[in-house]
Amino acid sequence: MKSNLLGLFADEIVKELGTYGFEKYRGQQIAKWMYQQGVSDFNVMTNIPNAKREILIDNFEISRPTITAHQESADKKTSKYLLTFKDGAAVETVLMKQHYGNSVCVSTQVGCAMGCKFCASTLQGVTRNLTAGEIFSQVLHCNNQLMVEQSTVNTIVIMGSGEPLANYDNVLRFIRLCHESYSLNMSYRNITLSTAGIVPGIKRLAEEGIPINLAISLHAPTTEIRSSIMPINNQYDMLSVINAADHYAEKTGRRVTYEYTLIENINDNDEHASALAKLLKGRLASVNLIPVNPVPERGLLRPKKHRVVQFLQSLQAHHINATVRKEMGADIQAACGQLRKKVLEQEESACIK
Ligand code: SAH
């Protein structure tokens, strides 16, 4: 079996090429082709002599996923891809063209084990973790798409399917790899990681010395409500999550974002808004309200527009920094896991037929 170089740091590439007599500087050369040029064919690496290219072709590979499905929003600003890896595992990646640049939302696991009641990614549990190379290949895929318009990915949100802190080592490797100068040279400030609230993971992240943005999926103002929609709250209570996030903010100087999915009659009334404001008062934090993308099998509904506005105003009246997430690509089922689910169901029904 050929050994995959995608996901390795330059010095690790050199080690991997070990006995084949490659000079040390070839590590960075190959890394630049892979990560900056998005190349997966050794033949294209023209600054590497033919004989060495032959060795690479015979023994190594740069493994990239194939595109199984693609949806584009009517305004063409959001593209959602279902990418399939060698073993058949498929994940969603979303490319969003925003006024401040191009943002890509990457998945970190195949499925998810968190069991949040409003999320489609978790309906069938988790199959496996993605490797750092597999997470990185989602960004490369988007960069390849953007090449035609001479553009690149500017920001990365780790908010696709999966719980990133449940796949800690691979996700951290991915983040550090994005930052390397021979790779994307991306500032840590342009990367946001969203977690359902794995307290030990948040504490560990605070010690890494990488000032990425942290987003916490809070979604409720009380522990009772949170437990009823997010089972993880029974393991790590929301107060311990907020404490860990405070510690993160203190260590990194970065403002923490609290994501709050608004669900009709569950967490969207004025009392909920006041309780949320009280909870977050005085913290280096802001709230991002997300009107829920309804998942039909969950029976959870999106509140009416005026409710969303009222909730926002209520938070602002309490001097809480809050915004409503701009809706990108609602017409293409951009909510977590919805495209993957649809394709899997189609495949299943095709099998039955
Ligand atoms: N597991 C991580 C990251 C993936 S989910 C986390 O929980 O944060 C990314 C964000 O999308 C989370 O805030 C999640 O709660 C939210 N989300 C999931 N399904 C949604 C839906 N149907 N509508 C709105 N937001 C949703």
Automatic annotation (TrEMBL):
PROSITE patterns, A to Z:
RADICAL_SAM
Q: Which residues form the Radical SAM core domain?
A: 98-331
Q: Which GO terms describe its molecular function?
A: 4 iron, 4 sulfur cluster binding; metal ion binding; RNA methyltransferase activity
Under the heading InterPro entries, the entry gives: Aldolase_TIM, Methyltransferase_A, RlmN_N, RNA_MTrfase_RlmN, rRNA_lsu_MTrfase_RlmN/Cfr, rSAM, rSAM_sf
Keyword annotations: 4Fe-4S, Cytoplasm, Iron, Iron-sulfur, Metal-binding, Methyltransferase, rRNA processing, S-adenosyl-L-methionine, Transferase, tRNA processing
Keyword hit for S-adenosyl-L-methionine: yes
Output the Gene Ontology cellular-component terms. Answer: cytoplasm
* Gene Ontology biological process terms from the UniProt entry: rRNA base methylation; tRNA methylation
Q: Which cofactor does it need?
A: [4Fe-4S] cluster
Localization, UniProt: Cytoplasm
The EC number(s) attached to this protein equal 2.1.1.192
Please tell me where this protein is predominantly located. Answer: cytoplasm
Looking up NCBIfam families in the UniProt record yields: rRNA_mod_RlmN
Q: What is this protein called?
A: Putative dual-specificity RNA methyltransferase RlmN
What taxonomic classification does the UniProt entry list for its organism?
unclassified sequences, metagenomes, ecological metagenomes
Name of the coding gene: rlmN_3
